[in-house]
Amino acid sequence: MINNLTGFLNPKSSGIGLEINPQQINIAQMIEQGQQYKLLKNVSKEVPEGVYEDGQIVDSLTLAELIKDTLKENRISAKKVATAVPMREAVIRIIPVPAELDEQELRDMVLVHEASLYLPYPREEVDLDYLKLGYFMDKDGIEKVNVLLVATKREVTDLYLEVFQQADLQVDVLEINSFALIRTIREQLRQFGSKEAVVLVDLEFDSTEIAIIVEGVPQFSRTVPIGTYQMRTELSEAMGLPISRDTDLLQEMSLIANPGDGEDKGMSQLNPGMSALLKILGELIDELGRSINFYLNQSEDLEVAQLLLAGPGAGIGQIDEFFTQRLNIPTMRIDPVTALALDVNEDISAVKRPSLGIVLGLGMREV
Fold first, then answer.
1. pLDDT above 70: residue 266
2. How many CB atoms lie within 10 A of CB 288?
3. How does DSSP assign 268-313, residue by residue?
4. Exposed, middle or buried by CB within 10 Å (0-12, 13-18, 19+), for 187?
5. What is the DSSP letter of 254?
């Protein structure tokens, strides 16, 4: 089998979106009403310590029981779900191949021959899928087609399938979390041209995933091991507070000084916790800047037009203004509720909305 990732780029029609990560599980149940989506239920449940270690699932049974209990408590009846593995677990490449190949020849070339050139591990140890993108003429006047190749180690996809099997659920779609996020904001991405890159920065619990997107397709991806947990830990240590997995305190912070704070002193001198938070955010911004420069140095006639913030870390007060000032790139938080013109039963706060991008994208796959 090609195997567990096969079909992840083709839409399905039933089930719910269910995102799992070291901080919590997120569930979205959606239906389509004409040209609009309606969010029937949006549920989150904290994942206890010990289920994940270093971003990896180490206690699949506890995670499966948590999923089962959460569905039952919220009266969500489903047998099929769409879920996703982290981008850091995937190899994503765009491969140009001759346009003259028929479908079987294309499949053989991409999944057998070309894949082995791009994979950092043996071909027999991975699950693969691919999608044809646009046609183009190369510098020699030969027509070619770009193919998006996606691979994960089989042990990763098997582990995710095991979790959901233990939860008595069938994985209808298994994809990469950044793809689900891109699906959620695809209409927003369409406003940018072929020479304009969008940098999608997903600030998650234990890492930040960076994807540089051109015409809706990720051209470059990288994971930085700085997330809201690391930010919360630095903040707690500086303020003499207990170390906690609860990152709500971050969302109560404001990264831009108020007019009355005084420019000579600055926020960091007024608050040691703020100083620690700004330090680790500075490290993240440095890594982000290096990633952007690395990509632009390999790309001709391309400019970064927008930086989009997603994930729970995007709920930190004025973080969009902070990134704009530090990187000199227009930055905004994503708002999936507005982007999808989503009909919701209950109001969803502006702070929480950026963290729903992945699970809503998964839910859309199942409508």
1. no
2. 22
3. HHH-HHHHHHHHHHHHHHHHHHHHHHHHHHTSTT-EEEEEEEESGG
4. exposed
5. B
pLDDT, tens digit, for every residue of 179-203?
999 999 999 999 999 899 999 999 9
Q: Is 98 helix (H, G, I), strand (E, B) or coil?
A: strand
3-state secondary structure of 181: helix
How do residues 20-36 score in pLDDT, each as one tens digit?
A: 999 999 999 999 887 88
Helix/strand/coil for 36:
strand
Q: What are residue 58's phi and psi, to 5 degrees?
A: -120, -10
Q: How many CA within 13 A on the CB side of residue 216?
A: 12
Round to whole Å and give the CA distance between 296 and 298: 5
User: Angle at which helices 177-184 and 357-365 pack, to 10 degrees?
Assistant: 90
Do 160 and 65 contact (CB within 8 A), yes or no?
no
Do the Cβ atoms of 245 and 229 come closer than 8 Å? Answer: yes
Contact 212, 198 (CB under 8 A): yes
